[in-house]
Amino acid sequence: MACHVRRRPNQPLTRIFGIAVALSLLPTGWVSAQQQLSEAVGQQGMVVSVSPPATRAGLDILKSGGNAVDATIAVEFALAVTWPEAGNIGGGGFMMVHPGGDHRRRRVVCIDYRETAPRKATETMFGPRDGRYTHKIVGVPGTVHGMVTAHKRYGSMKWKRLLEPAIHLARDGFEVDAALARSLNAVLASRSVRRGEHHQELIRVYGKPEGRWKAGDRLVLPDLASTLERIADKKDDGFYEGRIARLIEEEMKRGGGLITRRDLDDYRARVRSAVHGTFRGHDVYGAPPPSSGGTCVVQMLNVLEHFDLRKHPRYSARNLHVMTETMKRAYCDRARHLGDSDFVDIPPHLVSKSYAAGLASRIDLKKATPSEELAPEIQLADESPQTTHFSVVDRRGMAVSNTTTLEGSWGAKIVVRGAGFVLNNEMGDFNWFPGHTDRRGRIGTPANRIRPRKRMLSSQSPTIVARNGHPVLVTGSPGGRTIINTSLQMVLSIVEFGQDLPSAMRAPRIHHQWLPDRLLLETHRGTISDDVVKTLKAMGHTVFTRSRNSYQGDAHSILVDPKTGRLHGVADWRRNGLAAGF
Fold first, then answer.
1. Catalytic pick from 55, 82, 326, 387?
2. Fewer CB within 10 Å of terminal CB in the chain, N or C?
3. Are 507 and 26 in contact (CB under 8 A)?
4. Is residue 387 flagged as an active site residue?
């Protein structure tokens, strides 16, 4: 029986899985009425995602005997139906797989299904006036081939069975909840959609003739159902060849896009070794390049190992300063070095303990280092996030951390005519202007410049933390460049500060990405005090606090008791979601 529990905002927390809940770290009464968490506890399986129907699709597969990868595939395709702003078959992502202690393939891997640049792409194809919602900005989609690759390697159920929930949701329709209604209404009301002729198919497919969408309405997507049925029948050939490939190519020709059927036929997902690090006796696994997430998270944990954060209050100025200075240095190295490892050499020292020791030694505990001083060799010119993450663990201990995206919310806001799915705008993740790096955050360094068939750099950070070979934390997040720091702080909350998963999820998050040189804070009604903010400013930080309704990330996560195997899933309160287990 599925177990889904909602905790009241101020309900006292007790010990969970032998981990002491550090309530003293959080000021009394700071949790708002909005910060209710969807929680579930189970022994046989757990799924946590942004979309309740997608979570239920994955849980159904687990209850039917499927493993965590089977459930992940079901959730991925269901999200393409029920969370179209980020769930997709027209985009891409990264799937981290920990096979569990007794699986024949013990190696932790990342299935890289990131989009690629079309063959006709060039380094200087974009100009300052190019927009983010055009056919030209669409990368070659990788999701379908990524899911097929995962199924070939780890799947235990028949492929068609895994697509049944998504096909049913698209063909027969499903009830729109409040979060999806807001997303639909926002994209339909946006100026780019209302005024752009290339967005008329999106209006036809997702529009509501009689007014605005509201919770309880029913959304039916027959074109998408037909596309999913083709993929169910023919796997990747049903998408990269035949009718769907022809429709994609025709859509590109209509709007001046670059993708051809040859680009589609050429696409291949990659199975890559995970980035591996250690922290406080735990193994940490993350996604490798072209994701920057695994490298940056491991590098930052290596640096922070030199500072005993537990000796100081969780949100003291000292701790926030050290974390910020660590973030700056990792994001600076990200700009210097990281890109598609099939095209650029990634320096191995970035995740080494010795390199981190050097970085740690240069952090001044009393003042901030200006970002520009960290990379004097990068010439600065004088004086721009929607993704979704979900986690799955099965009864055998296999764990999957999966992050998938169209890049911006609703990607390019272009629906393939007759096929019913939204296309990404991932070409925007390349460095558009070679040599132009500015203080506002535009990066022009060589590693991530456009090349044909190259994968664009990503911040996606699906992360698995293990101990003694068994997963204990499965986490990740959406949020553009904030993703890396959100994932870092989830690991720190559990491993460094000994928080339980609900406390870790509620905890305020901070973000610094090197450029622009500013520190962003979630404050949660005084959790980070005014005095702490004043101290950070006096140390030289430029501090911005997020507005009341502006949050960082959406870190749907699972905590595993290493002794009993009991699973605790929590969906982040910041956006939407459901945790369900059995």
1. 387
2. N
3. yes
4. yes
